[in-house]
Design brief:
Shape: globular
Number of strands: 10
Strand order of the largest sheet: 3-6-4-5
Largest sheet: 4 strands, antiparallel
Helix content: 10-25%
Order of helices and strands: EHEHHEHEEHEEEEE
Oligomer: single chain
Length: 197
C-alpha cells in the first residue's frame, strides 16, 4: 500500500517529505498568502506533486472553461456541453426570462455553495447574485434511481463522477442525493460504486 497521512493545511511546512499532496483545501490556485504559502512554495520549487495542481485545475476544472468552450471555433462543440452564460456580459433581462431553464453557480467555488436552481429563484435573490462572479448553465434534470434504505424505498437523484489521473480513468462512482443540489448529507445518500454491465 501507499503510506498516507491526512493533514490540515496549516500543518504543511517547507520541510514536507511527501511525494503527492491531494489538495482538498480547495484554494486550487494557491492564492491564499497565508494558508497556501507552504504548499505554493513546495509546488513551485518542484518538491511535491499536487493534485489538482493550478495548471490542471485551470485547464480542466475552472468553470470559466465552460464559458470559453461555447465560443471556440477550432472544434465542433459537443452536444453534451450544456449552454453556459457569463453573468458578467449576458443580457440580464434575457437571463431572467430564461431562469427557469437555468442553474446558477459561482465561477470560482466548489460544491453547491451559492448554487441556485433558476425555477426557485426570487427576483431579489437574482438581483443579489447577478454579476461577473457568476454563471448560468442550462439545467439538466438529474437521473433518478430507487434505493432501499433500511425497509424504505427512496427515490434518489444521482450524478456520475469519473476520476482520472495523468490521462487515465482511475474510478467511476455515483453520488446519491435528494434535494436541489448534490450533497453528502442525505440519509442513504453519499458515494457509491458503479458497476458496468
Amino acid at each position: 500500500g501507499i503510506k498516507t497521512e491526512i493533514k490540515d493545511i496549516s500543518e504543511i511546512n517547507l520541510n514536507e517529505k511527501s511525494d503527492l499532496i491531494y489538495n482538498r483545501y480547495t484554494d486550487f490556485y494557491l492564492n491564499n498568502p497565508v494558508k497556501s504559502k507552504s504548499i505554493r512554495e513546495l509546488y513551485k520549487n518542484g518538491h511535491i506533486h499536487l493534485s489538482p495542481n493550478p495548471y490542471e485545475y485551470f485547464l480542466l476544472a475552472d468553470k470559466q472553461r465552460m464559458i470559453e468552450w461555447q465560443h471556440q471555433k477550432d472544434f465542433t462543440v459537443p452536444k453534451s456541453l450544456l449552454k453556459t452564460y457569463d453573468l458578467g456580459v449576458a443580457e440580464r433581462e434575457f437571463i431572467w426570462s430564461e431562469r427557469k431553464k437555468l442553474f446558477f453557480k459561482p465561477k470560482n467555488s466548489f460544491g453547491s455553495k451559492q448554487a441556485y436552481k433558476g425555477a426557485a429563484v426570487s427576483h431579489k435573490t437574482f438581483d443579489d447574485f447577478y454579476g461577473p462572479s457568476m454563471l448560468a448553465q442550462e439545467y439538466a434534470q438529474p437521473a433518478e434511481i430507487d434505493v432501499l434504505v433500511g425497509s424504505e424505498n427512496l427515490k434518489m437523484k444521482y450524478d456520475l463522477r469519473c476520476y482520472a489521473y495523468q490521462g487515465k480513468l482511475q474510478i467511476v462512482i455515483a453520488r446519491l442525493y435528494q434535494g436541489q443540489t448534490t450533497n453528502l448529507k442525505t440519509t442513504g445518500g453519499g458515494f457509491t460504486i458503479v458497476k458496468f454491465i
